[in-house]
Write a structure and sequence with these properties.
By secondary structure, this protein is mostly helical. The chain is built from 10 helices and no strands.
Length: about 240
């Protein structure tokens, strides 16, 4: 695993993304978000990623370090924090009963950890080594969004999946810009996890109703333009030597 990473960092990132999608999408489709099987799979995936990063001492490179910037300069992250609650705008309810809801909540937060590490951490940093920042940012965000096409394997319809892709691309740009300009992935992990967690407490609202998606896209454009004016905290390792 380490040899593969050292030989081809981009290939390693892509391989992990493919593995994640091909393993977890069928499990999610057949077992559901409330399944202990789903929770176990995500736990193993997240643990494997974090152990690898820690053992290779890559925490700083992949943003798994405390964010030390000025929250005020980032508008206290209010734009993305407000968007985090979008699934609750139509009301609050429980997607499942009892322990099933707990399993779903834990699984959704783990999704945030895994997807931020592989898409924003591994993939984006590998792309940044070989491409100009705007290109790396765009590819990372687009790949994250397009990756949600695997939702078709979970039984979702074509229109719902298309809307989810647009929604994910908007979030992809937000998360990548925050990571690129702050150097920390922790805010992205927390927000991503809570977006998915809150989706399990939504009542009477769906992303396919478009309102949340449209607001997310508009806020994403505005906030990304604002963030783009901030100095970059990340740089290609080769350029930094």
């Amino acid at each position: 695993m380490k040899k593969f990473y050292e030989k081809n960092e981009l290939g390693f990132a892509i391989a992990l993304i493919v593995l994640y999608c091909m393993v977890m999408a069928p499990i999610r489709g057949s077992c559901g978000d409330d399944s202990p099987v789903m929770l176990a799979g995500l736990t193993l995936f997240a643990a494997g990623l974090l152990v690898f990063i820690r053992s290779a001492r890559l925490e700083k490179k992949y943003g798994l370090v405390k964010w030390r910037g000025s929250a005020r300069e980032y508008l206290y992250f209010l734009p993305i924090l407000v968007l985090t609650t979008g699934d609750l705008w139509g009301g609050v309810g429980m997607a499942y009963d009892g322990t099933a809801q707990l399993f779903a909540v834990l699984s959704m937060f783990l999704v945030g950890i895994v997807e931020e590490v592989i898409f924003r951490g591994l993939l984006f940093r590998a792309l940044l080594e070989q491409n100009a920042p705007p290109v790396a940012i765009t590819i990372s965000a687009a790949t994250f969004g397009i990756g949600h096409i695997v939702n078709l394997l979970t039984g979702r319809g074509g229109l719902e999946t298309f809307v989810q892709v647009l929604f994910a691309i908007a979030w992809g740009f937000l998360f990548t810009l925050v990571f690129y300009h702050s150097g920390s992935l922790l805010v992205c992990i927390f927000v991503h996890g809570m977006v998915d967690v809150f989706s399990k407490f939504a009542a009477g609202v769906s992303r396919s109703d478009y309102t949340y998606v449209i607001v997310t896209i508009l806020v994403s454009i505005a906030y990304c333009l604002y963030l783009s004016r901030k100095p970059a905290a990340l740089a290609p390792e080769k350029a930094g030597k």
